[in-house]
Amino acid sequence: MERKIYDICIIGGGASGLACAAEAGKLMPGISVFIVEKNDVPGRKILSTGNGRCNLSNMKCPGHEDVLRFFSSIGVMTRTDDAGRIYPYSEDAKDVAEALTGAALQTGAEIMTGAVCTACSFDEKERLYETQITVKGDSAAEHKAFSVLSRRVVIAAGGKAAPKLGTTGDGYRLARKFYHSVTTLAPALTAVETHEDLSPLSGVRAKVRLSLIVHGGSIFEEDGEIQFTDYGISGICVFDMSRFMVIPEGRTLINGFDDYAAEIDFLPDVRDVDSLVRERLAGEPESALRSVVKKPVAEMILGRTGGDPEMTAWMLKHFMVHPSGLRGWDHAEITRGGVPLNELKMDRMESKYFPGLFFTGEIIDFDGPCGGFNLENAWETGLRAARAIASDMETMGRDDNGRQQEE
What we know:
By secondary structure, the protein is an alpha+beta fold. The protein folds into two domains: 248 residues, FAD/NAD(P)-binding domain (3-Layer(bba) Sandwich), CATH 3.50.50; 135 residues, no CATH class. It contains ten helices and 21 strands. A hairpin with a 4-residue loop joins strand 7 and strand 8. Helix 6 packs across helix 9. It is elongated and about 90 Å long. The C terminus is likely disordered.
């Protein structure tokens, strides 16, 4: 009996993998697709995006219109908020995951959940990829191992962020097996730990202007809401800042952030802070900053300045904290680093080293800010790979040797 040869084997049934399968099936009816997914359900990480609302794109993304057309084609209606963030109209991430899974299944894709890709290789003679898979049983003795043959492989295994959701960096190992390099990996879009004890401010939220200072110069600035915690600072602007906190060569996690300082401006809309503070401090110092900043912040500032008007005014605009680290993989939303873009044909997401090998989603060296930019990358790259594969198949035609062979 001849083994079935699939047109595509997709390693990872997340955002980019499901988008790739759905689009490939739509463009090339009858295409055979096999998806390997380690979680019990496909699209598990999608469920956690946008605090469960699934911020699937942003009006500022150049490719958002194409992505919206794709989602419309699979029955997902969307809405856009005042900041340009795009959500499913129901604002329920589960609807997006189910629509993607359903679209892939409707085109005939086979999805195997609870399955781990252990290896992948290319047979030069047969011009086929062989993907080794293990399906876990209740015990080691019940594990089942088998392989899948395919003409093309899409590595859509995600990054290392949020390992509890299944993204544990498996795809990087596969990429290296195909002679691809992987740039330095680091957690991104995550909270920042500080040397200062900010626990007295824990739970306080404030609308601020946040800057990242290195060697006296600002390399990042964003207005937004900051949240103080017992370990440091959090919030969307802090998450976005974390993308710029790169450990220099020769440094480690112990001293890698020593050159950074985060500057918090509590009054980004107020220019003449000196006059404001002098007038207020002429009275009772403890009530001087009432309605200006929240009480715990006022107490910490006055504790640092001793009520000195000039120093207090300066600190309202330049409240400095010093990062000691990032919160790590368990708390990060995305991965910074991955397969370098210059090793890929970016218009196709295809490897420059192995024809028929594609990389999509978080595994590539791309990280965007909060607001839908990273999911946009997942959809875009998945669609790009699907369209490249469909175009190749249409160009080559499917003669007797190219048709899938059933067992």
